[in-house]
Amino acid sequence: MPIENIGLMGSENLKSSIINRERKNEKSTFKDLLFKELGKVNSLQKDMEYLNEKLVLGESHNVHEVIIAAEKAELALQLTIQIRNKVLDAYNEIMRMQL
Description:
Blueprint: H1 11-27, H2 30-56, H3 63-96
C-alpha cells in the first residue's frame, strides 16, 4: 500500500477555502456576528417554548425532545451570559487604564 505525501494533498482546496473565508470576513462585522448568534439563542428559546406548549396541550408525547430542547436553550443562554461577562470585564479593564 503506497503512502502519499500529505503536504500536497488538498492544497488547492485549502487555498480556495482561505480565500472564501477572507471574503466572508470582509462582509461581516462584529455587530452582524453578535446579532446572528443572539438570534440563534432566541430561536432555541422559542423552540423550547413551542415544544413545551405542545407537550402541555397533549399534542406531543415525546418528553425527551422537550428536555433536550430545554437543555440546549439553557446552555446557549449560559454561554451568552458568560460571553457578556467577559466582554464587560474587558471593557472595565480598558476603562481603568491610565493614559
